[in-house]
Amino acid sequence: MAKTKVHYEYNMHCLSEILYEYLASAEGLSEWFADEVVERGDDFYFSWGGGPAEKATLIRYKPESFVRFRWEEDEGTKYFFELTIVIDELTEDLSLNITDFCDDGDEEENRLYWENLVENLKIKLGAA
Known about the structure:
single chain, alpha+beta, Alpha-D-Glucose-1,6-Bisphosphate, Chain A, domain 4, seven-stranded antiparallel sheet, 3 helices, 27% helix, START-like domain-containing protein, START_2, START-like_dom_sf
């Protein structure tokens, strides 16, 4: 089944170095993205509510800039999710840009899911 590519942008009020740690490390991701995250090399195992872990592989990254993961179920496809830190050159405002793929018709549910996650992240960062 084909998936739809979606983009979101969230203004963040924090330092990029701190935000990157929440995006690229198991410890940081377990603070806002999943209940538990275990990192083994480039493989990250995410679990929620005591359920079985879901594997995602870190397929690209640039320190202090972005991380891109691919879920195990999406191996061999072009699908991924990417968390990118963008700093406006003029205003120096920082935003978190998210690229994801979701099933056709699930765009609104996906948007609400990410909004909730980012709100949790902002609370953890004190950036709400």
